């Protein structure tokens, strides 16, 4: 039998820092995601996981990464290091201009408490006069923009106080959204969506 060369590579943990990155686990960063979403997801990882991402994803040398880590230990805010990582990766897939805009948008959204400048609008046609918030957040009709994977997740996010409608936090999972209507929904820190319901 001829000699064979085997290459092994480390597995990259997902944004939860526990399991491997996987779309089915909803802990992934898609290569085709928007620059804002990509930047935001990288910024959402823990400070400890950030160094793992630097090692596996950054083009910085090990010496540069070691020096940056030393600076954070000496007082540099880890968020600044994470912004460097986010900007580098977003630049790789979207270009420097969009990376700069994504960083600005992130700063406005979280540091200054502003809403995202651009929120996707989805129009849904319904025959009924209302829909439960659990069904709406997990509706398959939202496609890739679905705010929750399931009604169970929607229920859990509401219980955690992580769901807002037009900027107001909701705590009642039994509420319904009237049709027709147009509202802005937020789930967690990263997911924002405008949903326009209309009779049809």
TrEMBL record:
<dbReference type="GO" id="GO:0003723">
    <property type="term" value="F:RNA binding"/>
</dbReference>
<dbReference type="GO" id="GO:0005829">
    <property type="term" value="C:cytosol"/>
</dbReference>
<feature type="domain" description="RNA-binding S4">
    <location>
        <begin position="146"/>
        <end position="174"/>
    </location>
</feature>
<dbReference type="InterPro" id="IPR002307">
    <property type="entry name" value="Tyr-tRNA-ligase"/>
</dbReference>
<keyword id="KW-0694">RNA-binding</keyword>
<dbReference type="GO" id="GO:0004831">
    <property type="term" value="F:tyrosine-tRNA ligase activity"/>
</dbReference>
<dbReference type="InterPro" id="IPR002305">
    <property type="entry name" value="aa-tRNA-synth_Ic"/>
</dbReference>
<comment type="similarity">
    <text>Belongs to the class-I aminoacyl-tRNA synthetase family.</text>
</comment>
<keyword id="KW-0030">Aminoacyl-tRNA synthetase</keyword>
<keyword id="KW-0436">Ligase</keyword>
<dbReference type="Pfam" id="PF00579">
    <property type="entry name" value="tRNA-synt_1b"/>
</dbReference>
<keyword id="KW-0648">Protein biosynthesis</keyword>
<dbReference type="GO" id="GO:0006437">
    <property type="term" value="P:tyrosyl-tRNA aminoacylation"/>
</dbReference>
<dbReference type="GO" id="GO:0005524">
    <property type="term" value="F:ATP binding"/>
</dbReference>
<keyword id="KW-0067">ATP-binding</keyword>
<protein>
    <recommendedName>
        <fullName>Tyrosine--tRNA ligase</fullName>
        <ecNumber>6.1.1.1</ecNumber>
    </recommendedName>
</protein>
<dbReference type="InterPro" id="IPR036986">
    <property type="entry name" value="S4_RNA-bd_sf"/>
</dbReference>
<dbReference type="InterPro" id="IPR024088">
    <property type="entry name" value="Tyr-tRNA-ligase_bac-type"/>
</dbReference>
<dbReference type="InterPro" id="IPR002942">
    <property type="entry name" value="S4_RNA-bd"/>
</dbReference>
<dbReference type="Pfam" id="PF01479">
    <property type="entry name" value="S4"/>
</dbReference>
<keyword id="KW-0547">Nucleotide-binding</keyword>
């Amino acid at each position: 039998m001829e000699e064979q060369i085997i290459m092994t590579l480390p597995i990259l943990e997902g944004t939860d820092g526990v399991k491997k990155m996987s779309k089915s686990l909803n802990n992934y960063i898609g290569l085709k995601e928007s620059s804002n979403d990509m930047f935001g997801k990288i910024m959402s990882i823990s400070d400890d996981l950030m160094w793992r991402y630097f090692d596996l994803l950054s083009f910085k040398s090990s010496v540069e990464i070691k020096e940056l880590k030393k600076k954070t230990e000496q007082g540099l805010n880890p968020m600044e290091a994470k912004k460097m990582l986010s900007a580098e990766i977003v630049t790789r897939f979207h270009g420097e201009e969009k990376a700069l805009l994504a960083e600005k948008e992130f700063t406005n959204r979280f540091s200054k408490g502003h809403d995202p400048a651009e929120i996707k609008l989805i129009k849904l046609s319904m025959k009924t006069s209302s829909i439960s918030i659990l069904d709406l957040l997990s509706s398959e009709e939202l496609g890739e923009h679905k705010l929750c994977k399931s009604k169970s997740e929607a229920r859990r996010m509401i219980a955690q106080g992580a769901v807002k409608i037009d900027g107001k936090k909701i705590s009642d999972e039994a509420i319904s959204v009237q049709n027709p209507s147009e509202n802005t929904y937020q789930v967690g820190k990263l997911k924002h969506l405008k949903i326009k319901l209309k009779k049809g």
